[in-house]
Amino acid sequence: AEAKEAFALFDKKGNGTIARESLGDLLRALGQNPTQAEVADLANTAPRDIDFSTFQKILNRPNGFKPAGTADEFIRGFQVFDKEQNGYIGAGELRYVLTSLGEKLTDEEVDELLKGVHVGSDGNINYKQFVNQILSQ
Questions:
Q1: Is the pTM here over 0.70, yes or no?
Q2: Which label site among 76, 85, 117, 129 has the fewest CB atoms less than 10 Å from its CB?
Q3: Is 46 left (phi over 0), alpha (psi -120 to 50) or beta?
Q4: 62: how many CB neighbours lie within 10 A of its CB?
């Protein structure tokens, strides 16, 4: 029922289909977290206008609802940039990592993530606290 309602919201023309350009947003609205590359692959194999039965197959694909990652996985990723191995990463370096590597975020998205994050007087962020704070939202 939830998928049908969400699909209807994205059905801009009211003709029972969504544009494949809306696929990623619709999947995310329903709790999935596909990467941009996954969305591109799904969109490339989908018809230009996706009907609800086709969308259901995409939504219910294997690993569609896999978690984005565990706290430990994200922490291990940040440890690579923790030169002193003390649990901290520079705020500027964190911004660089988030906007330049992997699933790139925009500066605005990083600003939103960093709201309320404690930055020490030395400009460093405790990345374990950062990860746990983000994942608890």
A1: no
A2: 85
A3: beta
A4: 6
- What is the phi-psi region of residue 122: left when phi exceeds 0, alpha when psi lies from -120 to 50, beta otherwise? alpha
H or E stretch covering 57:
helix 52-59
Reference 86, options 25, 45, 38, 128; nearest CA is 128
Q: pLDDT tens for residues 40-53?
A: 999 999 999 999 99
Run of H or E including 25: helix 23-29
Report residue 110 as tokens: 């990083």
Contact 40, 6 (CB under 8 A): no
CB neighbour list of residue 44: distance below 8 Å, 6 or more residues apart:
none
Triad 48, 31, 112: Cα angle to 5°: 100
Q: Which two structure tokens, joined as six digits, stand for 89? A: 């990463």
The two structure tokens encoding residue 106 = 């925009």
